[in-house]
């Protein structure tokens, strides 16, 4: 999965322990799905040309667990306090009272 360069770099700037060298080999991050209460460990990696970032190892497990299909958008939020991504791909339910 290719990640938005501008968005991921803004998150990487506030993460602990992020280095250029570490991004080339990969940085493990936690991703939490609050809807299903599942947590995934995924590697963020930067390609050698420095123009794009991807989710690597761990992505396949997460993708299948979240039932994502090619072309579908994954919405994530970086929680600075918990130091993990939160999955925001859920449907809102309107409650009528």
TrEMBL record:
Q: Does the keyword Transcription belong to this entry?
A: yes
Listed A to Z, the keywords are: DNA-binding, Nucleus, Transcription, Transcription regulation
Key word Cell membrane present: no
Entry superkingdom: Eukaryota
- Which InterPro entries does this UniProt record tie to the protein? B3_domain (IPR051442), DNA-bd_pseudobarrel_sf (IPR015300)
Task: State where the protein is found.
Answer: Nucleus
Q: Which PANTHER family match?
A: TF-B3 DOMAIN-CONTAINING PROTEIN, TRANSCRIPTION FACTOR B3-DOMAIN FAMILY-RELATED
Task: Return the protein name.
Answer: TF-B3 domain-containing protein
Question: Per the UniProt entry, what species is this protein from, by scientific name?
Answer: Brassica rapa subsp. trilocularis
From the broadest rank down, the organism's phylogenetic lineage runs: Eukaryota, Viridiplantae, Streptophyta, Embryophyta, Tracheophyta
């Amino acid at each position: 999965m290719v990640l938005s360069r501008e968005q991921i770099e803004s998150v990487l700037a506030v993460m602990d322990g992020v280095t250029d060298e570490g991004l080339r080999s990969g940085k493990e991050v936690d991703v939490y799905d609050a809807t299903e209460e599942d947590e995934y460990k995924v590697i963020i990696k930067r390609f050698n040309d420095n123009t794009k970032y991807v989710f690597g190892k761990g992505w396949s497990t997460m993708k299948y667990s979240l039932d994502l299909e090619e072309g579908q958008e994954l919405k994530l939020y970086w929680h600075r306090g918990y130091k993990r991504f939160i999955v925001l791909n859920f449907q809102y339910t309107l409650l009528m009272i």
